[in-house]
Amino acid sequence: MEEKLLQAIKKKDIKRDEFQLFGGQAKKGYDWWWHSFTAHNKKTGEEKPFYIEFFLINPGKELKKEPVFGQLGKEKPSYLMVNVGSWGKNKAQLHRFFAWNDVIINKKAPFSVTAKDCYLDEYRTCGSVKVSEEEAENHPEYMSDSGSMSWDLKIIKQIPFNVGYGASSLFRRLQLFEMFWHAEGMKSFFEGTITYNDEEYIVKAEDSYGYADKNWGKDFTSPWVWLSSNNLTSKLTGKKLNNSVFDIGGGRPKIGFIALNRKLLSSFFYEGKYYEFNFSKFWTNTKTKFDCYETDTQIVWHVEQSTWNNKMITDITCEKEDMLLINYEAPNGKKLHNLLYNGGNGKGVVKLYHKGKLVDEIICENVGCEYGEYGKTNYRK
User: Fold this and answer.
1) Which of 37, 82, 126, 252 could disulfide-link 208, Cβ–Cβ 3.0 to 4.6 Å?
2) Could you tell me if 98 and 82 are in contact, meaning their C-beta atoms sit under 8 angstroms apart?
3) Could you tell me the pTM of the whole model?
4) Which helix (H) or strand (E) holds 10?
5) Which of 142, 154, 163, 261 lies closest to 216 in space, CA to CA?
């Protein structure tokens, strides 16, 4: 193990990756594990980004033999949704639903979720999702495109982003935040195979540029911001930053009924050192400004964050034609995020400063990215 990664290992906390839907969140709550990574077409070598998500909602309801869809307007949603897909050419999001009596969950660390041939734990995932054109057209409550994907992957979570006491055992137990976040693998390696619409793809650890996190709570944030990449190159030296990754997330966190407007949590693990911008650590004097908007062809993010000693300026773009409008329904059955742009091949630049001096200007590729606001029809500047 390289010395520069030791402090990252110390921040690992797989207890935060446990199943979290207990108490009030069991009857009004969601919990998901998200994974995104890059693969290559076995025949052509073409690069393609993918994602796999296990999304659980309202397990505390009475067990039924069929998934309950909130979009039908009769009851609050209750199911496990295995949500998989790809960005770019032939993009799609594909949803498969399971009733709770078809799901087995190991709730304690290390967690696991099993539903027929779909499986996920800290170290591996496999499964299949297939949605026909007729199903996608005739069942809008599925919120799904048509297509198929199967996978068998090994997961190695190398560098975490532990947000601190905001997702500590006490805060989790009290369920103080409306939306919690933990990135056990903001830099992860994936290895294995994917078959997507009958095309086979190979996932290799060294160029998978993987990411793994989880969110849980009682509702989603608006605005909703996420940016992350570990395919990074120094503009100052021209060298790949093989032990670096950044992660930015948040928007409008709520503690009980109190909303904290336009707050983001961020971390940049730069070649062995953490630069963290965390509003919950008030003693660091973290300040954040961000602007997200769309042009005719792109979604654009500009984020500026600073503490007493450090500053990070992030500028990312992603082509709208490569992105998905990702679909979720909230635990209350409403679908308020109807323009939630989600991508896996953003690009841009991050400038990192320490005590006013430029540490590095970093080229970012294969950026995972997301932006959405309730009730919006566009994000024109």
Assistant:
1) 37
2) yes
3) 0.95
4) helix 6-10
5) 163
